Amino acid sequence: MTALLSADDVSKSYGDLVALDGVSLSVREGEVFALIGPNGAGKTTLVRALTGTVEPTAGTVTVFGESPADIDARRLGVLPQSFSPPDRLTARELLTYYAGLYDDPLDPEEVLATVGLRDAGDTWYENLSGGQQRRVCLGSALVNDPDLLFLDEPTTGIDPAGRRTVAERVETLAAGGTTVLLTTHDMAEAEALADRVGLLADGELVAVGTPDELLAEYGGESRLEIDLDAEAETVASMLAESGFDATTTHRGVAVHGIAPTEIGRVVDVLDAEGLSYTALTWREPTLEDVYMTLAGDEEGGIARDDVRSRGAPAVGGDV
Ligand SMILES: Nc1ncnc2c1ncn2[C@@H]1O[C@H](COP(=O)(O)OP(=O)(O)OP(=O)(O)O)[C@@H](O)[C@H]1O
């Protein structure tokens, strides 16, 4: 498939601060691409470079094969991280206004319903809740039915049901051929929605791949988590004496490198030693584990230099 959006060795500095450091990335037509990474990693700066609102210090960006400055803005939908529409217009008036900027927009009523605001359509923007305001802003990015949609933290402040609505909308748009690049701190959202995920840290793209590829490479093993009343160190060493790879966690003990069929053997050891536990949970790796491995070094993840020496950033396909 064609690369609809690409960044080639893009860097951006603000004085001495390097916000982006040689980022290369391409997003294919119809793909949903999620950018994840810690606060200050450079996600918004990359979105702004891709949408042409920030001029890279070095490197090249192309959108629809052209420089962002030359493209037809009507083909883009952009939800910035912070966006302040006029306060004293209602949700309906705002979406009608934004629709009026385009030749062939979606019906504002339909967009209002899509973002779950039909009942609040006549409320001034300033009187909407934070999540409702975010929904209006999202609606404004959808109203021109864009070919390429940038969503910078679209679900921040939106409740779980609303997040599901947004996810369903993104899935519908992607199924209809819209290309979506989103940033998020919600790892479950990224894992569920994205065809590929890119992790930015300190301005560098540390890894790119499908969620499955990233999980296989950086997610670690499945594990059995045991919530304990007893002393975790004692339980971990007893399990270790029985040949299990057990480590302590904040809730008890985790047993690594076993198959689900071996859970009974662990329980046998606990029972034989008279150790009580409050819960046993089988845990498959998630994108949050990937994130902690790659970007959680301040919280105990591995150093990114180690990751680079293991062949990052791309774990599968092209970057
Ligand atoms: N206009 C600017 N002037 C100076 N520094 C900036 C500017 N915009 C961003 N930065 C800096 O660039 C770095 C990357 O910021 P950016 O907003 O891209 O991060 P982010 O990954 O989107 O963070 P968050 O998850 O908190 O939204 C930060 O250190 C930020 O302070």
UniProtKB/TrEMBL annotation:
Gene3D superfamilies associated with the record: P-loop containing nucleotide triphosphate hydrolases
PANTHER family per record: ABC TRANSPORTER ATP-BINDING PROTEIN (PTHR42711), ABC TRANSPORTER ATP-BINDING PROTEIN NATA (PTHR42711:SF5)
Pfam families: ABC_tran
Domain ABC transporter intervals: 5-227
Family to which the UniProt record says this protein belongs: Belongs to the ABC transporter superfamily.
Protein name: ABC transporter ATP-binding protein
Keywords: ATP-binding, Nucleotide-binding, Transport
A molecular-function term among this protein's GO annotations: ATP binding
